[in-house]
C-alpha cells in the first residue's frame, strides 16, 4: 500500500488565482458595462483570460503570465479600460510559508521565471538560498505563480502610489 498524502506532491491541483484584466476601470463599472462578448479572451496572447463567475472575463494566473500586451483592452468594444500609459494594476506577488526554499528544500523556479528579476535568492551559510521579493520591481505579471511547485505564491493587491 502507498502513502496517499505523499502522492499529492506530484499533482498540481491549484486553487484558481483569479483577477480582472489589467487596466480595468473599477469593478462596479466593469460588471455594469461588460457585455461578456469574449473578445478579450480571444485577443489575449497568452490565453490567461477565462470565463469567470457569471461569464465575466477573468485572468487565471495558473494558465500563465500576463505580458501586458494590451490586447484585451484594444479588443473590447466598451470603455472599460484605462489608457495603456497608466499602471496596469496594483497586483504584486507574495511568497507564502509553503515555499520549498523557506522549508529548506532547494527551489528557484519563481526566480528563474521572473523576467524583471524582482525575485532573487539570498545565499544562506550551510542552508538553502532564501527568496527575496522586490515589491517595487514586481510587475504583477504572474509568471512566478504558475511554476511554483508548492503553490506558495499568490497575487495580492498593493496600494498604488499616487
Write the layout of secondary structure elements.
Layout: H1 4-7, E1 18-19, H2 27-33, H3 39-43, E2 49-51, E3 57-60, H4 71-75, E4 91-95, H5 109-113, E5 119-122, E6 130-133, H6 143-147, E7 153-157
Antiparallel strand pairs: 1-3, 2-3, 4-7, 5-6
Could you describe the 3D structure shown?
There is one protein chain. By secondary structure, the chain is of the alpha+beta class. The protein has two domains: 1-88, Alpha-Beta Plaits; 90-157, 2-Layer Sandwich (Alpha-Beta Plaits), CATH 3.30.70.20. It has six helices and seven strands. It has helices spanning 4-7, 27-33, 39-43, 71-75, 109-113, 143-147; strands spanning 18-19, 49-51, 57-60, 91-95, 119-122, 130-133, 153-157. The strands form three sheets. A three-stranded antiparallel beta sheet has the order 1-3-2. A two-stranded antiparallel sheet has the order 4-7. Strands 5-6 form a two-stranded antiparallel ribbon. Residues 1-13 have low confidence and may be disordered.
Keywords:
162 residues, alpha+beta, Alpha-Beta Plaits, 2 domains, three-stranded antiparallel sheet, two-stranded antiparallel ribbon, 6 helices, elongated, iron
What assembly state would you assign to the polypeptide chains in this entry? single chain
CATH class of the largest domain: Alpha Beta
Write the CATH fold name of the largest domain. Alpha-Beta Plaits
Beta-strand content estimate: 15-25%
- Can you summarize the main beta sheet? 3 strands, antiparallel
- Rg calc: 18 Å
Into which percent range does the helicity of residues fall?
Answer: 10-25%
Number of separate domains: 2
CATH architecture of the largest domain: 2-Layer Sandwich
User: Which stretches of 5+ consecutive residues score pLDDT under 50?
Assistant: 1-13
Instruction: Estimate the global geometry from the Cα principal axes.
Output: elongated
Please tell me the overall pLDDT. Answer: 88
Side-by-side strand order of the widest sheet: 1-3-2
